[in-house]
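BUG-764 | component: ligand-complex export | severity: low

The export step for zinc ion jobs runs without errors, but we want the raw record kept on the ticket for reference. Input record follows.
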Amino acid sequence: MASVSHKSAHIHITGIVQGVGFRPCVYNLAVKHQLTGWVCNTASGVEIEVSGSRQDLNTFIHDLQSAPPPLAQIDRFDAKWIKAVYFDDFTIIHSQDQPGDFIPVSPDIAICKDCRQELFDPKDRRYRYPFINCTNCGPRFTIIQDIPYDRPNTSMQSFRLCPNCKSEYEDPKNRRFHAQPIACPVCGPQVWFEVNGQRLAKRNKAVQMARNWLKAGKILAIKGLGGFHLSCDAANPQAVNNLRLRKQRTDKPFALMAFDLKAISQYCNLTDAASKLLQSPQAPIVLLPIKRYGIPIANNTAPHQKRLGFMLPYTPLHLLLLEPEQDYPRILVMTSANISEEPIAYRNDEARLRLNKLADGFLMHDRPIYMRTDDSVFAQLDLKPYPIRRARGFAPNPIRVVQNLPNILGAGPHLKNTFCLSRDHYAFLSHYIGDLENSETLQAYENAITHYEKLFRIKPKIIAYDMHPDYLATRYAKKRAEEEGIPLIPVQHHHAHIAACLADNKWESSNPVIGLSFDGTGYGTDGHIWGGEVLIAGYNDFNRRYHLAEVPMPGGDRAVMKPARMALSYLITSNIALEPDLPPIKSLTEMEIDVIKHQIQNHINTPLTSSMGRLFDAVAALLGIRQEVNYEAQAAIELEAIADPYEEDYYILDIDGHTIHTQALFEAIVIDMQNKVSINKISAKFHQSIIKMVLDICNIIRKETGIQHVALSGGVWQNLYLMSHIIPALENAQFIPLVHHQTPPNDSCVALGQVMVAAHQVNH
Ligand code: ZN
Ligand code: ZN
Ligand code: FE
């Protein structure tokens, strides 16, 4: 046994290496090369000790590095020779926790091809079992209570493995070898159908009953991976309308789920890139252009939209619900189960309480969800995925950054909140939390922060926060800093946007870029509401080079929901006559107009704003598209949707000093309206004017500073008309655009930016 060539190596691997079938892969590779030793999950990754001939060891290391399990993401692979050790065989040994160490946790993964195959195979012992999973798929982040990722640390802890599952779990050649959520109809979780607390059906009969109820136009609460969905037949306008009424959601589009790509392609145009994203292990909602002459879907699923948000079934239960059969719904509405902007319901008892007025029935199961997570949403920009909401399938994957970050908590913004915790080269940007406007969401926010700190062993030494004094996230930051004696660093909202975009693009240098920070609302250093900001910004600092001319917001925040008020404000500040046939004037009473005039003249409840979002609102109202909105950015989205794709003309935005003036723009739009130019053309010309203005400004700044990188961040950049025109325009002018691709451009990126700014400010 003790031959001269006997060598031993110790290998330490970090990254996403747990819950992705890493140990079985190592085991099989070791056995293949006749090596002995052990592999083990630790809280800091995977440790391996192997013995054998030098050549076999080298091949083993090479193979493991070049072909790790498909879902693994290796950050570091350290192998070193150690003193020869002798083992009898190769074993997987029990996980070890090392306090203080940490390891990235795998996100939840959509059902894989093999499991899908078994699900519909009548000969398989998991035939039609709604919780089938394997080492390559299934729940992860949503069921993990602590690391290392082993069954006792998950919400599967209460299910005892049956002999069959146990032998699969222990068999290194089985594809369920050490699959922590392994389950079968004998030993695993079960579904049931429930109405008013009464269980009407169990197991497959429950799924069938749910299908029947959906077919009959009912609204169901369906427990999924990260929480409950509210679901109904998307082709049934009455059912969709009921859902809108109950959920208090007037126009905001609903997400849809279809059995397969073929079903989606009847309604939307699918590119190869979109198909790939839909079928990816992350299985997000993808916003897809509606087919002009496709089969109609109930109009009220997504009113006034050019795109529908579709996803594919990502759990076995979803597949069973949507299995094609004559007369059963082909497309289901699948919207987060909540009222308005409250967090998604995820516990059975809580769902019964909160959803009983919303759902006619419940399809429930007894696998607890530990961390609620919404569905992720992506748009397609130039055939590349463009994140709109980052949650299931992505969180809690960290954003890897070039810089070595101290332990910082970025408390995040008010709307579309996420928070961010950093250590080493990782920024753990949380899953989407939502708008911090009610106590439920605030509770979810605080719980999630506690959970991430525990999971990733991070104790913040600095807290970065938004400058807005009234934000709940800001209050949380200040309270915690005071209680725990942690220093606070305020970060301006639009600076945070640009820093986030830089981190997203792995920007290394301390050199500044041109930052186009265009959004709805952010608190400025002067106490005004910013949002149309051209910054010269690096991680450390920023200079507000240009901004939209400030206008009063009549009634403050109320103007956000009433674009007519913003239109009036722009007309008044531009000295344009308030002709009675202008749509916003028509929509307001004479008295309302007088009150708003009075407010503006006397500076009563009229905060000043340079918001780009409000400028879009005002133009949408002026064109008669929308005088009131019932969800954020609705007017701007509908303005984009009608833009004539062939119009190339633009209006002039005057630039002088630090200010981008809008008077000439509004005068020109009113003249076009009087000349009966179509609103489609006016919308396109307005979009083109923003692009022209951006190019002019970038050229001036490049002349002054030599800067050629341009970062685009803020909710306005969710506008795909703008994006698809501005990127080639910047590139043609030899600028280098930096665009979000791992994090959303909207406020869900702000926490990352806060962390990056704070990290650089403490280091300088
Ligand atoms: Zn699987
Ligand atoms: Zn079993
Ligand atoms: Fe913002």
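Assignee comment: Attached the raw record above. The chain has a mean pLDDT of 94.
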